[in-house]
Write a structure and sequence with these properties.
Helices cover 80% and strands 0% of the residues. It is an all-alpha fold and 297 residues long.
Length: 297
């Protein structure tokens, strides 16, 4: 028992440190000007928020209802569903024909609103699954605010008032956070491997359905412009695994939940890459200056 408690404490601290560094990298890479991209487009902003904070959690509820999955998988799916705003969105969409400015605005906006929306959804899920997610919303709010709001605000402040320092810190901080995230995902998969084996194929089924649902929701709400549609689909499908792991390690003792989150994160990354490559191949002969015109806006 002491060993398990020590391991849980280590994983919790590791996940929270990873999230803090990744959120700091968001603020350093963006700035207040980039955040306003979505805010100047209320229709697109509304669709993005609907996709991230409403339809994805509802899709998770539907998957949990349709697929007979055990406790750990249900909770892991629910936690991932309520955690948008992954730190990798902006850099992930710098390549190809996506809109980096839209990706950055989506990333920061959803990450900031998660401070309010995650506790709300945690409260809703606690009512729906009373034996699975009995976590006080105030506790979740405090955890998200400390791990996400503070580092984003710090990064934005540095970018605004010390831009040269932000340029120097941006890449090293992001690389460190990405390295830590890969490490914590691998560590969790190794530690929770017995639970994964016992659960069988159900996490895979849930991960595939969840990844597909996130991409489809973003695709159809991304608007008629191909670049915007691609950006919102991939951004919506890239959930914040760092925040999900931080919440899970702090509130749930079952390692199977962590394994489920890691499984969802890996499948979402693969699904996003496949979708992006296939979707962009639909427009190989088009003129980027016209088809992807919003890139300049």
């Amino acid at each position: 028992m002491p060993i398990e408690l020590d391991l849980k404490a280590i994983l919790s601290s590791y996940a929270q440190l990873t999230l803090f560094i990744l959120m700091l990298s968001i603020g350093l890479s963006q700035g207040f000007v980039n955040i306003a991209y979505l805010w100047r487009r209320p229709g697109l902003l509304g669709r993005c928020l609907l996709a991230s904070f409403v339809l994805v959690p509802l899709a998770a509820m539907l998957i949990n209802w349709v697929v007979p999955m055990p406790f750990a998988v249900r909770v892991g799916l629910a936690v991932m569903a309520i955690c948008p705003g992954a730190p990798m969105i902006y850099r992930k969409l710098l390549k190809g024909r996506a809109l980096p400015t839209l990706a950055g605005s989506f990333q920061v906006t959803t990450a900031l609103l998660a401070v309010v929306m995650v506790p709300i959804w945690a409260s809703i899920f606690a009512q729906i699954y009373p034996n699975d997610m009995a976590v006080a919303p105030a506790t979740v709010f405090r955890q998200v605010a400390l791990a996400q709001l503070i580092p984003i605000a710090a990064g934005l402040a540095i970018r605004e008032w010390f831009p040269e320092l932000a340029d120097d810190l941006d890449q090293p901080v992001f690389k460190l956070g990405s390295f830590l995230l890969i490490g914590v995902l691998l560590l969790i998969l190794i530690v929770a491997l017995p639970q994964v084996i016992r659960i069988g194929l159900l996490p895979v089924v849930g991960a595939v359905l969840f990844a597909a649902a996130c991409l489809l929701i973003g695709h159809f709400l991304g608007g008629p412009d191909p670049a915007s549609r691609l950006t919102i689909a991939v951004a919506n499908g890239t959930r914040n695994a760092g925040l999900a792991l931080a919440l899970a390690t702090a509130n749930f003792p079952d390692r199977g939940i962590l394994a489920a989150i890691a499984t969802y994160a890996l499948f979402s990354a693969v699904a996003g890459s496949i979708y992006s490559n296939l979707y962009q191949k639909k427009f190989p002969q088009e003129d980027p200056a016209t088809v992807w015109s919003d890139r300049r806006n």
